[in-house]
Amino acid sequence: MRLFIATPVTLPFYQIIKEKFSPYIKGKWVEGYNLHITHKFIGDDNPENWKINLKIPNEEIEIKNFGVFNNKILYMKAFSANINYISEQLNIKNFIPHVTLCRIKQYNNEIFNNLELDLSTKIPFEVYLYGSILTNKGPIYKKLHKF
Fold it and tell me: C-alpha distances in angstroms, 42 versus 5, 15, 39, 105, 110?
């Protein structure tokens, strides 16, 4: 089974984001119920191998500000005092905490002038082992284990 370790994200203003950026980008928007911060993509493995002991900070994660990776991914940034703590436990290097919003196929340069949108929310710092099944309609994620 395809596995990854992530924090689920709910953005109450996701529709506003899509409306704001849709004139400037064409691409595949992530379904709202699939939004998350990936701490580690594992790939194909047995879920039992990943029911490990992770220490989860007792704090909230703030989601705010926008960015674009390599003109391919529109994302929101994730902040907390200990956001890198999970990646450190999993020996992940160069972790950039973010929530992927859209996989960009084509964009208008004006998108970069519109990245300043004053929206933010806080979410619980919860971490899960997810299973991912790829379908023609997109991935289906299932929480398999809470750390």
Answer: 8, 30, 10, 26, 36
CATH code of 8's domain: 3.90.1140.10
Q: Quick one: DSSP state of residue 94?
A: S
Q: Total structural domains in the chain? A: 1
Positive or negative, the Cα torsion across 118, 101, 31, 143? negative
**pLDDT tens digits, the chain, 147 residues: what are they?**
999 999 999 999 999 999 999 999 999 999 999 999 999 999 999 999 999 999 999 999 999 999 999 999 999 999 999 999 999 999 999 999 999 999 999 998 888 777 788 999 999 999 999 999 988 888 899 999 999
Instruction: Show the domain range for 69.
Output: 2-146
